[in-house]
Structures are given as C-alpha cells and as structure tokens.
Amino acid sequence: MLILECPYCGVHADETELAPGGEAHLKRFGPGSDIDDFEGYLFMRENPKGLHFERWRHAYGCGKWFLAARCTATLEVFGTYPAQSAEPPQSIKDAITAKRPGWSWRDFA
Amino acid sequence: MSTRLSTAGRLIDTAKPIKFSFNGKTLQGYAGDTLASALLANDQLLVGRSFKYHRPRGVVAAGAEEPNGLVNLGSNGTFEPNQRITTTELFDGLSATSQNHWPSLEFDVGSINTHLARFLPAGFYYKMFIHPRPLWKHVYEPFIRQSAGLGKAPKDRDADTYEHFNCTVDVLVIGGGIAGLAAAAEAGRTGARVLLIEQTAAWGGRAVVDQPTIDGQTAADWVTTTLAGLAAMENVDIRTRTMGAGVYDHGYVLAYERLRDHAPKASGPRHRLWRIRARQIVTATGAIERPLSFAGNDLPGVLLASAVRDYAVNFGVGIGDRTVIATNNDDAYRTALALHDAGLQVPVILDARAKGGGELADQARAKGIRVENGKAIASVKGGKRVTGVSVCLQAGQGAVLEEISCDCVAMSGGWSPVVHLWSHCGGKLTWDEAQAMFRPNNDRPPTGADGEAMVIAAGTANGHLYTAEAIADGWSAGRAAAHAAGFTAKPEAIPDGSDVPELPLTPVWMMPQGAGYDLRSKSWLDFQNDVKVSDVQLAAQEGFESVEHAKRYTTLGMATDQGKLSNINGLATLSGALNIPIPSVGTTTFRPPYTPISMGAIAGVARDDLFQPIRKTPISGWHESNRADFEPVGQWRRPYAFVHKGESVHDAVKREVTNTRTNVGLLDASTLGKILVKGPDAGRFLDMLYTNMMSNLAVGKCRYGLMCSENGFLMDDGVVARIDDDTWLCHTTTGGADRIHAWMEDWLQCEWWDWKVYTANLTEQFAQIAVVGPKARQVLEKMGGMDVSKEALPFMQWADGTIGGFDARVFRISFSGELSYEIAVPASQGRAFWDALLSAGAEFGMMPYGTECLHVLRAEKGFIMIGDETDGTVIPQDLNLGWAISKKKDDYLGKRAQERSHMADPNRWKLVGLETLDGSVIPDGAYAVAEGMNPNGQRNTQGRVTSTYFSPTLGKGIAMGLVLHGPDRMGEVIEMTKGDGTYIKARIVDQVFYDKAGEKQDV
C-alpha cells in the first residue's frame, strides 16, 4: 500500500486515503480534432515497468488532485507536485535524473 | 508405535492433562501440546486422506509447512475446516474430525483412485473432460465438484469476533528465533521503536531444540536472558502467536495474531489483524527442511528428520520405536542422536553422500548407530503405516540390497530458507549452489518509497544455517535496520554462537538417482495435492516448460500449504527433466499470506451494522417506524415501499402509484445530489459539463440536463436551477452525487484550473421532499406561506419562501408527470417538515411513497433512469434525447466522441416503449430476438428491455427498451425472450404511456 505526500496539505497519505486517476499530463483533444489525436487522448496510455507519471486525488483528505512521479517496478517515489503543472517541475526531473540517468517518458526527459 | 516417551518434552506440562476428541474418540494430551503432538502421542499416525488418490496420510512436519494434517475443528458457530494440526495448540474440549474420506478415515472408498493412478496422471482432468463440450455442465462438472475440496464449508454464522490493529514502528522483526531475537535486541538498544513477532507460542525457533551454545550458555538460557532484556526496553514490543502474513508496498505489513485459538473460552476477539507500517523490516523467518523423493515417501510414519526431533524434544513423543534416517546432509544426524538419547532405536542412517558425514556422523557411530554412506531408500514398505524400508545404492537404479524393518522414517533433503516475506514485495533470490538453496539476493532487496532497501533478511532465512553465522547475521540486521530508520548506538559485543562443523550436503532430488518410472510414480513431491516426480516430468515432456505452466498443469504447490515442502524439489525435478540449471528454471511467485489467515480476521469488525457506513436522511427514522421496505441505493438505504398491514410489497407499490396519481404522494428525495457551482466562470463550466446550455438559463428557472463522459456515454442527469447571476444548483442522481462532484473537481483542478469556479456538495445540507399529485397544491396552500399558484410559481421554476413556517426552496419540477413540488428545507428541519406535511395532507389522502413507486411513475411517463436506460454504452442520442444536446456549443465533454462513426451509426439501438399483446410484464433483462442464429448457436438479437413494470394506472405491463431502428417501427410486433426458452410478443409503441401531452404536470 503506497504512501504519497499530498503537495497541498503536506500529509503523507496512505493509499486508502487516495483515489487513483490514471496517467498524468494528457492533452485533451475536443471537437474538430483529428481521429488519431482523439484516440491517443482517450485510449492510448503508457504502461511502463519503471518511471511513470500518475494522477492521484487526496480523496479522503483535502480533496485536491496532484501528480506523482514514481517507479512502478521498485515503488520508489520521486516526488509529487500540483495538478496545475503542464510538465514536471525541474526539482522532480532532477530527482529522477539522480536515480535514473537518461530517463525519458513521452515528451519529457 | 507412536507414543509418549518417559523423557519430558520441553514444551509440555505433564501435570496438566487435557481431554480432546478426534473423530469422536476421546483422547488425552498435555498442556503445551499441539494437536499433532497429542495425536501422535496417542498413536494416531493416520490423520487424513490425500486430495486426489485418497491415500492414507500422516503428519510430515511439526510446523506451518505441514501439508497433510488438516482437520475440521469445532462445531456450529465455531466450525472451521482445513485447520493445520501442527499449529493448533491443544485445549480442553478440542474436537476435531478428519477430512476428505468416505465413509471413514480407516476405510475410504475413494482410495480406489490410488490403484487407478496410472490412468490419472497430471493434466488428466484437462484432457479427459474437454470433449464433448455439452457433457461438461451436466455430467463432468457436478461429478468433479462432488469430489473436489478438502474440508467442508461452515454452515453457521461465525460466533467469534475479530479486530484490526494499526501501528507504526521503526523496525519490525518477523521471527522469534535466535536471529530475530538478536536483531530485536540490537535494534531496541538504539532506541528505535521495535516490534518483534513470532508465529508460534514459544521463542527460540530451532536453536532451543538443538541447543547449541551461545555466549557460553545453552541456547535456551540465552533466549531467556535476551527476552528479559527485551521486556525491560520500553521501546520494544514482543508478540507470540503472531505471524507475519505479508509484506507490501512502502513498509506495509500484515500480521495475524491468534489471540485465543488456544483458549477458546477466554473473552475478547479470536484473531487480530495487525496493519503495520514499518520503516524497516527484518525477516528472520528461519528455514524449512526439504523432504527426499523416494518411493513411498508419503506413507504415514515418514516424517522430516527435524520434525521427528521436534516431537521427541519438544513434546516427548516418539513417532516409532525403530527409525531409519535418510539424509544428504549432516543435520539429520542430530535426529539420530536425539532419538538414541531418548532410548529409541535407529537401525541405520542412510547417507546418500558417497563420503558420508562429518563430526556428527562420528558421534552417531560412537553411540553404536550403523551408518551407511552412498545408500538410499529404494522404497518404503507398508500400507497405512511404515513397516520397513528396502535399501539400495543412491548411485544406482534401486536394486534392493537389504530390507530393514522399522516403523518410522526420518528424511532430510537439506534446508530451504523461508524467503516468502522477502519475496512478497519484490525481493529477488539467488541460487546458492553449495547449500542447494534459494536465498535472498541481498543486492536486490524490496525497496521503499525512497528507493532504498526496506527489508533485511537475517539468520537462516538469509541462508546462514550455522548458529554462529545466524545469530551474528541477526545482530547486524537489527543494527542495520535501526540505522536505516535513523537510530544508532555504540556497538557492543556480537552474540557468539558455537557449532559442530558440518560437511557440505550433496543435492539429492531423486532417491535413488537412477529410479525408473515405477519408483518415480510413487515418489511424492506435493503431499497435499498429490503430485509425484513422474507428474512433473510428464509436464515437462508435454511442453509445460515454464515453471508457472508446470505448476498449473500439475497443481504442484497450489494446495493450502502453497508448496512449502514441495516447491524446491519440484523445481529441481523440472530442471532435471528439461536439462537446464535450477536458477534458469526460476521459482514461482510467492504471494501473501504466508499461511492461510481467517476470513474473520480480514473482515475485522466490518460486519453486520459496521459492514459499511449507512447514510441516512433526516427522515430515515420515520421510515423505520413506518414499515418501510428498504433497498440499498449506493450507501443510502431508501424506502422501496411503505407496506401496510395485510399488504404484499407489490400491493403497496400499486396503492402508492394509484394514490399519487389520484390524490397526493410524498417522497423523501433528500438523497438526490445537490451540488452548488458558483463563480464568474460557472456558466461556461456548466456548458462544458452538460450537453445542453446552462449559461443562458434565467435566474429563477430550472432546466433538465445531461452529462456525458469524454467517451460520449451518458453518465448522469438531473435538474439544474439558476440561483443568481453566478450561482447554479445542480441536482444529480442519488448514486452520482459524490462521483459527479469529484468529476467537476477533476476538470476544474486538472484541465481548466484558471477558470474561476467553486463547487460545494450540499447533498446532506438539505432535506428535500417531493409533494406529488393532483392535490399537492391544496396541501401546500393549507400549510400557508409563499404563493405556490401556477402564476406565481410556474412549471420548471423555483422560488425561496416559507411553507407552514419552514424556510423552504421550492422547485416546480416533476419526475412523475403529476403536479409536483420538490421542497428543500435545512436538514435539521427535515423531519419536522415531513411530519407537518403528513398532518396537513391527511385530509387530502396523502401517503408517502417509495422508490419503486417513483420508478413506475417515471416509466409510465417515459422518463429515463440512469442505470436502467443507461449502462455505460448508451449515448443520449440513443434515448431520443437529441433535444437536450445543444447544437450551438462548440464543445462539451463527450461531444468529440459522439462524432465518431459508430456513435452516429443509424443502426444503433434506440429507445421505444414496449407493450405486450397480452398485457403481461416483460421479464427484466429480456432481449428482442431477430431472425437466425449467431456463430455460438444463440438467437440473434435486435434489442433489449431497459425498464419493465406493471403499471397500476394502465392496468397492464409497460416497458421501455432499446430496439434496432425502433422509432421507425412503431406498431410492429417483436418477440422478447422470457428466459425459459419461450417468447413473449410485444408491440413497439411510444415510450410515453401516460399523459402524452404533459398537461398534468403543468397545471
């Protein structure tokens, strides 16, 4: 059972306090968008054994959504950050680089 | 003959005799006995029948790894099957019965299977029962089910109570042997918060049986001294009868404490599930001895050498008068010495190693025990118990050299560290060639949130079989764990153990190594699931080369003991059959729990009233005292109907419908979701959320709205009211309130975070009561207050005011087709307002109604219900709700998805009304059949029913359903399935059955 720190209220929340929200940093494609773009937005997900960026909600806490960078294989957590982020903050990227040099995930590296 | 010895057992108290019964026979044991040791003391060697061949089986082990000794325990409310007798402590009045036999343990008809064994090899069931297919359901499956399963499922409610316990520690030490004790002592000395748990009732593990010297004392004295030291540390807790069941993510551990299995008459919960968060975990879980594979190794009287020693030393029980020992290592000689000391005979030690053993072997010879090097057991003689062994060369094919009579065989194939807990959360293993064992790979431990090791294996569980190594390893594990958790202390002396030096073992996976099929097909690997050496070889031969495939094909290791004895021998056999090294075969996955834990412990107190939270409206108390027939709706309980004396539930629903249509009904609608959406961008936000326009809704008005997922599917509906310029109140379905609120927050926080909008879920802040029926206005006017006339408060508008002195917000909305007011009052006023309405309404024939009446009323009007007409695959267009989809908006959630070709397909099933020709009610879930069959031989379909009711208003069955081209086929008669192979004819009609013009709700 994971423990993630909510970047809003600072609580180290047990997984039972959290609700998972799937992959982070998806770009929404709405009406008029290309069918491939829309398919990618709606269905295509990364499924890495390793570094991953995820959405979580502190559902039984402050109610805020946040994002987490963690390793799905070792369960290492590189950091959590606010959902209002278009990309991972540099500090998170640095934390990942320290442990996983040369990492990349979608468009981030 | 298996009997109590004159030498006292370490753990038993002969001054305290205990009576118990086995298969109805009253027997006697002593305080401190396990059920296994007490049965063995009474010469009850035969304890069960095997799963597949119903072979007679006896106790093999003395601990948690026991595969055969499973019994039914207790009766009625305390009945429990599959209880392991080696871990069941004896208590006065214990009552056990054996399993998996008919008619009796001694004589079992199913044992015919053992003679058919040649025809029941691995994979037999898969091969035999696959054809012809139709026979499976009616012949094969019932037959197999009849003979499957070991124990019987309990029939009565569990009379015991259980609990959960949460705790957080710096260092958790699992295992109370010398390594665990040393770890806990050293970690405790640093000031770290330490919890030490031990699965049995006694401390010291194997060391106190074999009694090596530690720090100049006997192991037992060292254990006593160390325990006293731990007890004196305030930061250390120690628990016996508490098993580490599983290690999970980020230091989460489940432990299973058996509080009063040994004392059932004591008060309090029976089991306690510990939910532990540990910064660091030390697994000092010991090792388990492996059986040897020789023909007849499953006969009662063949035990692990360590178990024979345990029974003699701990419980003063001799399994036999004459014990033959078969081994590939030095440790088994300790059993010979212990038995010799207890006055029992060891006719021979068969050491499979060509050069034999070391110092311990010399000690045995010095006592006059015959030792034969390079020798093996060709086969064990006997039926329901051992009568002798035939001896052969280990290097040969099993030619018998001599026969030796005996009544017990003690076998040792070496030791396997208990790596389960290490492996649960990702710890990797390494194959130790010298010791022929998988041991923890300390370079690849389970990792925690920081990416660093969170588990340290210690002692024999880490592959250190010598006392000196094990205790030092435990000490350093405790020190390292405390350090990783942030605690240090000046080092003091490492506990110093001493050992008799041993010669290395020689791996023996088959005895003799050249055994033919005849012997291999009688050599058991998995005693509980009846898997033999020949079965694993067959699996390999038939191409099940992956260890996971071979496991499933043969069922090796899939019984309740999870292969504690069989896994390594099975892997080695597979490795031999495939001619690839053992590490390349790999292990199967270790999964929690380590041994089975009770369902009660998992549930804890979450049963009966505490099973889950029940949400109650402010009016719930009235419902409870007025014969409400409740149904669960999400976590709410809503009245399904209010049943009068002498009525059936169905009668009550009919009465409620008719009364609401003719007089006036009252509905507790408080459970409906009420979400306030407020802010400068609230209108824009709601335009994105709903398929229709909400931003242009005038203040004071209400509008019905639909919400879709990004997939385009309809997910919720409800009436939205514009409260003021920047405030809207969104009603959701009862089950949808929390989900929709979370959905709104998701979009606001994660996508449109620059929009100025706030949401608040006010669902429980208001009681909402619907006053429904032609006389609704008369009731409200009688109560007095605000003007509720058609002119002052027209249909689809709302107003604030007072009704009968209550502050109220009144919505003129209708889910029934009748004149209807939904009135919200503060939750604290809900019950008083309900009572006031009832007393004012009495003269108008007012009656409360439940959810089923609500459903019938809405179905008569052709209104859809989320969850009936929708199932996650239905779009609003399917339900003829195109009118509620704005054509003016560029975007709303789901709009892009609804543009996809399949969503715009004219062949999607569409909503219509359905009316049976004979007036009967179409069964729930019925399909409309089409011509022909599909490739599976089933009728083709062209639609399905979504809502079906008896309409008291119309006096006949009515239904709605989704039908291919339905709206274009009005008047056509189609056939619906009844579920019993027959069909019912129904006509496609308009979905609105009652008041098509909608005049009654707008008066």
What would you say this structure looks like, in words?
The complex is a heterodimer of chains A (109) and B (1003). Chain A is an alpha+beta fold. Chain A has one domain (3-108): Folate-binding fold, CATH 3.30.2270. Chain A has 2 helices and 6 strands. In chain A, strands 3-4-5-6 form a 4-stranded antiparallel beta sheet, covered by helices on one side. In chain A, a hairpin with a 6-residue loop joins strand 1 (3-5) and strand 2 (12-14). The longest helix of chain A has 10 residues, at 90-99. In chain A, 28% of the residues are buried. Chain B is of the alpha+beta class and 1003 residues long. Chain B has 26 helices and 51 strands. In chain B, a hairpin with a 2-residue loop joins strand 38 and strand 39. In chain B, helix 14 (533-541) packs across helix 15 (547-554), helix 14 crosses helix 16 and helix 20 (649-662) crosses helix 25 (851-860). Chain B is elongated. The N and C termini of chain B lie far apart (95 Å). Chains A and B meet through helix 1 of A and helix 22 and helix 26 of B.
Brief overview, please?
The complex is a heterodimer of chains A (109) and B (1003). Chain A is of the alpha+beta class and 109 residues long.
